[in-house]
Amino acid sequence: MYGSIFTCDRFTPVRIGGVFNVLACIIGGIVELIKQVISLCVTNFFYDGTAMSISIELMKCFRKTARVGNITAAAKKLGVTQASLSWSIKKLEQSVNAELFVRTKRGVVLTRAGTIVLARSEALLRDWAAIGNAISEDATDIRGTYSLGVHPAVAMVTLPRFLGMLMHDHPLLDLRIEHDSSPSTVLKVIDHKLDFAIVMNPAEHPDLVIAHLYDDEISIWKNLNTDARCSGADSIVICNPKMPQTEFLLEEARARDAVGDVRVMHCDQLPVILSLVEAGVGMGILPATLVQYGRSGDVKPVPQSPSFIDKCCLIWRRETQFIPASMIIRDIIKKSMAN
To answer: DSSP characters for 41-103?
Structure first.
């Protein structure tokens, strides 16, 4: 005679006298119970750690249960244990402070509160999916607003080399350009006020990545057609006192007799200094790239003038190092400046 003691998922009804089959079924039941306990512990661990994941994942469990109307069947469709799904529903009920299901012999039925949650949950999940898509698009496409800081004089010789290509190839990009001194611009990148910056001689900082673009040579220049005004007691050197290289170059030029006992005129705009040198007002302390940009063939370095090598660099915050859109923008700038 055959009879059933109990059944489990992995075993069929067993013979009463089959001792080994009975033991196997008992062990199988214990294993399944252990699996459910482990699943419940893991679920608790992850849910307690990430509040946003709780809301979305619990909502998905709730919606599936509401559609199916049975916790056991819903758990199979979700690929979780019944104990884990029951815990998720309980967690969601605690979050909204209301019962969402009424348990019946056939399964579960939505309460009034459950009906409200189900009606609102579709919009919630749709909005969450839209947020995820927006973040994904922002990371992979060059769209939206980015900010670039650069000194006005540096902008004159760098922006024309890449800005046209960047804006033409990426019509969804909105680039905001801000002009300031290199030290101030570096601080703005560190403080999250700028995304990128093209600066001179940036100091190492743990939050920054620094990429070298080119070297520039700062020296004293003059107009060859007004050479007489660049020597003697009446000669003038026009310079930007805010540039740290200015004092060094003036002292070194006097030591080398490259300039005599000159008068010093201060001007904080390098393009204006270049225009004054071109007009023959006096000599000027200028970067070579700016003089070349001005295309004035008559402006040449003062003989025996000292020089100072500046490093022009592109900087950005370290946490944006591997964002695809940021990488594309940086690559365009670096490749354009390398040509």
So the answer is: HHHHHHHHH-HHHHHHHHHHHHHHHHHH--HHHHHHHHTS-HHHHHHHHHHHHHHHTS--EEE
pLDDT, tens only, 193-238: 999 999 999 999 999 999 999 999 999 999 888 754 555 556 899 9
Strand partners, 283: 237
For the chain, domain boundaries: 50-137, 145-339
Q: What is the pLDDT of residues 166-182, one digit of tens each?
A: 999 888 888 999 999 99
Residues in the chain: 339
| Percent of the chain that is helix, strand, coil (3-state, to 5) | 55, 20, 25
What digits encode the pLDDT tens for the residues 11-46? 444 444 454 554 555 555 555 555 454 444 433 433
Q: Coil, strand or helix: which one is 310?
A: strand
**What does pTM read for this prediction?**
0.59
Q: Within the chain, what is the greatest distance between any pair of CA atoms?
A: 127
1's tokens: 């005679």
**What's the one-letter identity of residue 249?**
L
Task: State how far the alpha carbon of 94 is from the alpha carbons of 52, 78, 88, 152, 237, in Å.
Answer: 16, 21, 10, 59, 77
- CATH class for the domain made up of 50-137: mainly alpha
Provide the token pair at 290.
């700016």
CATH number 3.40.190.290 is the correct assignment for the domain at 145-339: yes
Amino acid at 182: S
The Cα–Cα gap between 338 and 210 comes to: 15
